[in-house]
Amino acid sequence: MSLMNWVVLIAMYSQLAVGGESIELSAVELPPVQQAGLASWYGDGAWHGDITANGEAFDPMQFTCAHRSLPFDTMVLIENRANRRRVWCRINDRGPYGYVNDEGEWAFVVSSSPDKNWRGILDMSIATARALGTTEVGLQNVYLRYWTRNSPPNFHLAALNP
């Protein structure tokens, strides 16, 4: 099991069984809300296998997403503001790139410029969108929670290897 999966498990459970022995884990503090805005999803998987901005092949069944500026491999906790469902997701691509131009029409440009009126803050894989319950509505208001380099997470992985 990867480190990412262990972190997700720790965040979901306060007790873990290792080798038949139960280990109590202290409650994990959620990362702070860093951004709020619209999230979209990539669609039905038409880009499956295409290369993402970080160089890996896109797999719509993985919990990955695109953000214009967060570092690649940043783990974000996405919360659907309508139904409060949450899912951990890894940044592996750039986007979204839809914005409203000066005439009030939607346009598309590949840019990370902060002076654009961007449509949203995140593009998600279909697996991520399904977990959040957003595939039927397309765009969804979300909170992005993550730890910055200056605020380390409040958990210890040492408990997993006693």
Can you offer a commentary on this structure?
With 162 residues, the protein is mainly β. It has one domain (33-150): Beta Barrel (Barwin-like endoglucanases), CATH 2.40.40. It is 10% helix and 30% strand. The chain contains two helices and ten strands. Strands 3-9-4-6-5-10 form a six-stranded mixed barrel. Strand 1 and strand 2 form a beta hairpin. Residues 1-14 and 155-162 have low confidence and may be disordered.
Could you give a quick summary of the protein structure above?
The protein has 162 residues and is mainly β. The chain has helices spanning 3-12, 126-132; strands at 15-18, 21-24, 33-41, 64-66, 75-80, 86-93, 98-100, 106-108, 122-124, 140-145. It comes from Lujinxingia vulgaris.
